[in-house]
Amino acid sequence: MFRRCFNRWCGGDENRVDSRTIYVGHRRCPGTNTYLPLKFCDNRIISSKYTVWNFLPKNLFEQFRRIANFYFLIIFLVQVIVDTPTSPVTSGLPLFFVITVTAIKQVGDEEWMMWITETSLQMRMNTIPAHLILGLVCRSTEDETFPGCSIQASLDGESNHKTHFTVADTEKHLDSFYATIECEQPQPDLYKFVGRMHITKDGLEPIVRSLGPENLLLKGATLKNTKKIYGVAVYTGMETKMALNYQGKSQKRSAVEKSINAFLIVYLCILISKALVCTTLKYVWQSHPGHDEPWYNQKTQKEKDTNKFLKMFTDFLSFMVLFNFIIPVSMYVTVEMQKFLGSFFISWDKDFFDPEIQEGALVNTSDLNEELGQVEYVFTDKTGTLTQNNMEFIECCIDGYQYNYRDSRTELDGFCVTDGPVSKLQEKAGKEKEELFLRALCLCHTVQVKEGTELHGMDEVDGIGASDDAEQCCYIASSPDEVALVKGAKKYGFMFLGMEGKHMKMQNRNKDVEQYELLHVLNFDPVRRRMSVIVKTKSGETLLFCKGADSSVFPRVQAEEVERIRMHVERNAMEGYRTLCVAYKSLSSEEFEQTDAALQDARLALQDREERLAQVYDQVEAGMHLIGATAVEDRLQEEAAETMEALHGAGMKVWVLTGDKMETAKSTCYACRLFLKRTELLELTVRTLEEGGRPKEEKLHELLLDYHKRAVQDRHKDKDKEGVTRSWSSGFREFGFIVDGATLSLVLNASPDASASRYKSLFLQICQNCTAVLCCRMAPLQKAQIVKMVKNSKGSPITLSIGDGANDVSMILEAHVGIGVKGKEGRQAVRNSDYAIPKLKHLKKLLLVHGHLYYVRIAHLVQYFFYKNLCFILPQFLYQFFCGFSQQPLYDAAYLTMYNICFTSMPIVAYSLLEQHICIESLLENASLYRGIAKNAMLRWGPFLYWTLLGLFEGLVFFFGVYQLFWNPALADNGQVFGNWTFGTIVFTVLVFTVTLKLAMDTRHWTWVNHFVIWGSLAFYIFFSFFWGGIIWPFMQQQRLYFVFANMLSSVSAWLIIILLIVVSLLPDIVIGVFRQPQGPDRQQVPGPDPAGCETRTPLLSEATSAGATEQTSQCTRILSTFQYKQNLIPDWRPPGPLLIES
């Protein structure tokens, strides 16, 4: 890299910097004096995050970046260095457990899947040398994966076939073949390759041939429709386009993680405050005579000589160590386990299995499960996501006449509806136009015919069956549009038969076979939005056929021809069809020679090849004649409308981001019920900006102000009066917003004097106050800009992007949650997504069920962890007031270590994986239930304060309840006095039983696993206490709990106080759950299931409260006690419902 930069700055050879020279087969060409083999990278690709050598330091560095882990590391070091009241084991063992489990999870969750992918790829390349190097000629056979980027299918994620070509003059005599390749240095663009090959044969002058993307086979792609090929490696290993396109996904953090960090800071402040209070009060207490140095505890000389401020600092650290368990370090590992194990429930969901592709859902990351329950904005692609990407030829227009296919066995039937004069095309001129149009459909494409293939189980998009001399064939192409057009031409009697060398064969209506020599293909690209072919007929005539978008073709044809076709195109677009215009041009021999020479020169250039080719394309495609247009239907996905309606009912706003025409996309939005008949559409497109003849920026400012007044200001007035949303009121004004890519560029990239920030602010406010937004004619980068703009807006709403193609990757990566659809556009979107589903309809259950449940589970987990640790440490803090702030621990070291690891860990793990507070059927039927958890409702400061106050109350009950018992410490029958370790053990016993039973009360969905871990944890605590205190352990210098637990249980008073304190501690939950009901205007009917057959009914809240006792008899009745459960979690929570809900 340094040498390349140095040569560029110092005027070195430009070709040396921007290109590389490769000797084919490592054979020196005749006339070359020297051959110095260059060193390039080998064919290994390392895409995993960790290696054997860097795993330990890299993983430890990442884990200790977390506040809690780093904090406990410091506490552990303090315990090792400073004389603290607790053993270093109490902090070191939980920290070691957390670090180990998290490391194992990361290896299993990320590296294992990466290893499987790389291993499977290498297994498919088993016929290729493992150490492939540049210049080596290798052979690949059909269905074999290419080991490197070779000169000769696609890595862009599209499953459809790409046509590639061999280089001319390289077909034979490879043994005596001498050639050198000049090509560009490795770069990640999949659609770009610039190079040229110098071929030397039999001592003749070298022949120069251009190399482009059509000659390059990419690593990871598979050979199809060809028995075998030979290729030369030009890029290997980390220089292949597959490796260069790999980018580690940016670490996405969920809203729950941010809440955890905020709560952690609060508890850290509580910890520091406790340590400061105890340190201060210790020295206040010691200032009294006789307290600092009592007769029974005289200070040593070293203690007397110690600096007082240093002593105060060490005391502060000791108190920090004593209270450090208020920070729940094990919560992180529990959250990691919950996310990792919970992600399998998505993969195992049978409802996500698609029999067509024989696949289910895929989870690429487990860190965002709960984010699925917090989505506020959904950004969706149209083609392949809302629609099936299964194209069907519907009709066409030839010279202004509309043609509808009715019966493939009859002759071409042309008839008019509104597009032209009422007559059938019987005249000679009409027949010539028909046949010219159909020949254009048969020739202007990159479709291939694969012969000898059985059609059973064939993909409908990638192939069709055609009978020709009893020989089976199928069509394969890079785009389903092209297959649909070829199939459409076949319906009218013109059938494409395939390629023979450089000749295209087709069968006309009279069953005669015609041949055309293919001279040039002017490839399609997103900028041109059209493609062309130049062919030569048997008579020697040279023709150019072009097809493309109307906006790209209309400016290049005669104006009078446009008017005859435009009405047809606009009508088809309004009906939701995808339209393409077809044009042709006859080239004279001089024109073709000039074009051919210009194309050859441009293709041989190593610098600015694309720009030079684009200039030639524009020149040759000018002055064409418009023949007609086609209409292809892309049908809606199964249950697309129901899914969009459910997302709206759940309070999400759906934006459609597409590159299609506005009319086509608008029709799809109506079909999906994103726009309704009563929806008032606000249009901000190039057409609206050009109305009135005023400057665009002036018109843009005027429209934005007008739309803002109608959609934002007036709507807020109406909302105050109506108070309802779209779903339950027909009189409420709702707006839909339409914007195109060109206008969006004006909004986002306005000049500084045009108040760009104000444009953007007005635009965003309008969009956020519309029920649905349609962005058409969008480039992939603009899709990402839209998502980023909304994501960074006020309130930081949670965004979700869903798409199926490579052009959706940018917005998938930009959104908080990215969903890939396993459609016919391939797997690029799936590979870059966080989650992948087979169909759009699966998004409904993914969000409304899995997202809802995951969020409720993990929110309860987080609040529960902080609550139980506060209950754990508060008695320890209170105990210091009764032991002279001597840092005497209340609990034994074994209890300190095992509390979060063993005694209370498994019940909350089981809860966070299995809890279903509402049955799945109800969550699917009542989308409005999703609104109840929106905007991180269960992890706001209100619920956090409630759980904190509950922990304070129970901690006070634990300590002072036992303290009252110990007014008379002679609790045993024989008058034996109990000591401080019995006091701490009773407190700890009440604590363990209370927090565990609290979780049992919150559990609505009981399984054998819940029973096992809850009652098993309590039994294990009792067994461990007996076992730990009943044996003299030889490795321990002092054994504080020897027979303490057994003696404690011999006292009736101890049994009574334990039971009484557990009941008193749980009493607030019981009272709140039983007596608290909504008051005033919040009291409303809530949709719920019918216990008999899970049918939808509408029980009152009082019915829901009284039905809690029967919730275990039927899963569906669990909805009836949901509201009681939520009230326990969130004091201010009210059940969501269809009435009186703010939009």
From TrEMBL:
Keyword Transmembrane attached: yes
P-type ATPase N-terminal domain: residues covered: 39-91
Transmembrane segments: 64-82, 262-285, 316-335, 894-914, 944-966, 978-1000, 1012-1033, 1053-1075
P-type ATPase C-terminal domain span: 830-1077
Obligatory cofactor(s): Mg(2+)
Membrane topology annotation: Multi-pass membrane protein
Keyword annotations: ATP-binding, Magnesium, Membrane, Metal-binding, Nucleotide-binding, Translocase, Transmembrane, Transmembrane helix
E.C. number: 7.6.2.1
First-tier enzyme category under EC: translocase
Domain of life where this protein originates: Eukaryota
Annotated compartments: Membrane
InterPro entries assigned: ATPase_P-typ_cyto_dom_N (IPR023299), ATPase_P-typ_P_site (IPR018303), ATPase_P-typ_TM_dom_sf (IPR023298), HAD-like_sf (IPR036412), HAD_sf (IPR023214), P-type_ATPase_IV (IPR006539), P-type_ATPase_N (IPR032631), P_typ_ATPase (IPR001757)
Reactions mediated catalytically: ATP + H2O + phospholipidSide 1 = ADP + phosphate + phospholipidSide 2
Alphabetized NCBIfam families for the sequence: ATPase-Plipid, ATPase_P-type
Family of this protein: Belongs to the cation transport ATPase (P-type) (TC 3.A.3) family. Type IV subfamily.
Name the record gives this protein: Phospholipid-transporting ATPase
